Amino acid sequence: MHSLFDLRWGKGARIPVHAPEDEQGCDDLYKHPGILDFSQRSQPFQSFMWQDITITPLPLNHSRRCMGYAFELNGRCIAYLTDTNGLPDTTTAWLKQRSVNWIVTDCSFPPIECEHTRLSNNHNDIYQVQSIAEQCQCERIGLMHLGHNVLLWAKQHPQCFSDSFQLLHDGQEIPL
């Protein structure tokens, strides 16, 4: 939703936005949508089409209702799962049933040893992303929405990363 804050004040045709039901909306986006049209609601696991791409909303763990999205085209699948703390069992099961080429997810924290502390956050730590990769059996997982401490930790632990488990960066293209 971050880019939507800037887009809403654009000019031109209205932009349809698929979003979960949320009475409060994201901050004041629903109250002051500008050119954004929030009339289309996303329901968990109810796919819709955009051009030739099948898009499926996937529930995430966050402080408020939040969805990730899986994009499928020509037998290839990428799941964009940001703003989550681990994954709900239903989302993990959905991903496991498919051949997922890429999962792109947030990782705001380096490994957190205390499980209570880890689970009290709204974003993943390295352990949670490793668990997602293992449970979902995706080909590759890319980490984004990186906290500064994650980057420092990654510099100190380069052996933890590979082509199948990598930090993503601005401008990077993800091949499908």
Protein described:
There is one protein chain. The chain is of the alpha/beta class and 176 residues long. The chain has 2 domains: 42 residues, no CATH class; 125 residues, Ribonuclease Z/Hydroxyacylglutathione hydrolase-like (Metallo-beta-lactamase, Chain A, 4-Layer Sandwich). Helix content is 22%, strand content 28%. It has 5 helices and 9 strands, in the order αββββββαβααβαβ. Strand 4 and strand 5 form a beta hairpin. The chain is globular and about 50 Å long. The relative contact order is 0.12. Keywords: Hydrolase. It holds the Pfam family Lactamase_B_2. InterPro entries: Metallo-B-lactamas (IPR001279), RibonucZ/Hydroxyglut_hydro (IPR036866). GO terms for molecular function: hydrolase activity.
Corresponding CATH architecture of the largest domain? 4-Layer Sandwich
Number of helices: 5
What is the highest CATH level, the class of the largest domain? Alpha Beta
End-to-end CA span: 24 Å
Organism: Vibrio maritimus
Domain Metallo-beta-lactamase: 43-145
Pfam families: Lactamase_B_2 (PF12706)
Protein name: Metal-dependent hydrolases
